[in-house]
Design goal:
- There is one protein chain.
- The protein is an alpha+beta fold and 483 residues long.
- Among the domains are: 3-246, Amidase signature (AS) domain (Amidase signature (AS) enzymes, Alpha-Beta Complex), CATH 3.90.1300; 305-369, no CATH class.
- Helices cover 36% and strands 14% of the residues.
- The strands form four sheets. It has an eight-stranded mixed β-sheet, with helices on both faces.
- Helix 9 crosses helix 13 (420-428) and helix 10 (326-337) crosses helix 11.
Length: 483
């Protein structure tokens, strides 16, 4: 395989074994960026001089016999919202166009300490609030499998750059599917960690902003094993935070699919997916059975699907309401009052959730705690839950439409794109880890991803299942024209 499409673990090994130098690898990526990025617009900030200086230093250190880290010399990019010293973190907001980060985000510090070379940043939507990736500052990012379609969001530039072979590794963030949806759309891997295990210092408007509820940071990659390595690098307490804690994630050393008990959801009556998606999940289930795994199809979940959708949106919009001005909050509250209290469509639910009283949010958090307890009981019977990520593969660009006006063609029936919050909320509503892995391709050759959801803190279990399925079933597929 060309080095541009190898995983970060493999690239680091090739550099250590001197089969390729860091400088050669960087120059190859830069040449591919020059060739492909004008079409994709995935990488929107690139510091070639600093990256070349770091690559030469990595090669010199290796030649001198210096001990090197697990990502030594591997060029990578990061989502635009993570601080990279000397460069803007705009979150796609025009009023932050002139922002310059004073220091690296903690995740970047840890990746650089492990030897990675951060060569640039990738595109996002405004306020990281879309499953598309476009903004007034940097423009539109497209999907390398089909440029008429979204790469996902909000880590859309990250997933597109990986799929096109423009970078060795990526780091994204996820509060509303922002790692998993782009990984699904672009056919790569992504991991949404258990809430709280990866510090978010350097991923905020200001250095002293509180970490949002639900928000996590995690890796995207072309190989499942890269998720495990990069999570181990970036997870753990912030040494600058008071009351520091120590992370001790359970190991996962099972070597065969037959050692696992899994539940598989192929569809949902309230939030349906298309036939290509349900077939892809069924094919995974059949493969796991053929490999000797115990597979439980379509089990009863801890909460009815419509109730989970509502709970997730309530806590999610409670978390995101902190970015609203007083004027915006008043306008949203007035809109909420204009709907019938029994109306449970997306618009009234999001407006009510954005303007809810603190007491209402606390009550929702109580319901979430009950859900966490129910999930613990659920995972007492199975090791993991496999589910769809979205109703369809990557959808056509809908940049002119607000979320409430976006619909997906699900086997000839238009379904609200906001239904996607159900699939996202299966993991996010209760802080569960979720690994997004390739599950198949649709009839048009577009990737279909699946979530591998596990109990809290069992991130390595989710990733291990992704590794075993990559070895025996399928993994990343290079999009046509980027070979």
């Amino acid at each position: 395989m060309d080095p541009w499409f190898m995983g970060a673990v493999g690239l680091a090994a090739a550099i250590r074994e001197k089969r390729i130098s860091s400088t050669e690898l960087l120059d190859g990526y830069l040449a591919r960026i020059d060739r492909h990025n004008p079409t994709l617009n995935a990488i929107i900030i690139l510091d070639k001089d600093a990256a070349r200086t770091s690559a030469k230093a990595a090669d010199d250190a290796l030649a001198a016999g210096t001990d090197v880290g697990p990502l030594h010399g591997v060029p990578m990019t990061v989502k635009e919202s993570f601080d990279l010293a000397g460069h803007p973190s705009t979150f796609g907001r025009p009023d932050r166009r002139d922002h310059k980060a004073a220091r690296d985000a903690l995740t970047l510090e840890r990746l650089k300490a492990a030897g990675a070379i951060v060569m640039g940043k990738t595109n996002v939507p405004l306020d990281l609030a879309e499953w598309q990736s476009f903004n007034e500052i940097y423009g539109v990012t497209v999907n390398p499998f089909d440029t008429s379609r979204t790469p996902g969001g909000s880590s859309g530039g990250a997933a597109a750059a990986l799929a096109a072979g423009l970078t060795g590794l990526e780091i994204g963030s996820d509060i509303g599917g922002s790692i998993r949806v782009p990984a699904h759309c672009c056919g790569v891997y992504g991991h949404k960690p258990t809430y709280g295990i990866v510090p978010l210092r350097g991923h905020a408007f200001g250095p002293d902003d509180a970490d949002p509820d639900i928000m996590v940071a995690g890796p995207l990659s072309r190989r499942a094993q890269d998720l495990r390595l990069s999570l181990d690098i970036i997870a753990g307490a912030d040494p600058e935070a008071p009351g520091a804690w120590r992370l001790d994630l359970p190991d996962e050393n099972r070597r065969h699919l037959r050692d696992f008990r899994v539940a598989v959801i192929t569809n949902d009556a309230t939030y349906p997916v298309d036939s290509d998606t349900s077939t892809a999940l069924e094919n995974v289930a059949k493969h796991m059975e053929d490999e000797g795994a115990m597979v439980l199809r379509d089990p009863e979940l801890p909460m009815p699907s419509d109730a989970l959708w509502l709970l997730y949106l309530t806590v999610l919009r409670g978390a995101t309401s902190g970015r609203l001005s007083d004027k915006q909050s008043a306008e949203i509250a007035a809109k909420a009052d204009g709907f019938d209290a029994a109306d449970m469509n997306y618009d009234p639910v999001q407006f009510r959730s954005l303007s809810q009283r603190h007491q209402a949010w606390l009550h929702a958090c109580d319901r979430r705690e009950k859900l966490r307890s129910l999930w613990r009981a659920f995972f007492g019977d199975v090791d993991a839950l496999l589910t769809p990520m979205m109703a369809t593969s990557a959808f056509p660009h809908m940049r002119e439409l607000k979320r409430q006006d976006q619909y997906l063609d699900v086997d000839g029936t238009l379904q609200p794109n906001a239904d996607t919050y159900y699939w996202i909320g299966l993991a996010s509503a209760a802080h569960l880890p979720s690994t997004l892995a390739p599950a198949g391709m649709n009839k048009d050759g577009l990737p279909i991803g699946m979530q591998i959801i596990g109990p809290e803190a069992h991130d390595r279990r989710c990733i291990r299942l992704a590794e075993l399925l990559e070895e025996s079933f399928r993994g990343f597929t290079v999009p046509a024209g980027y070979e």
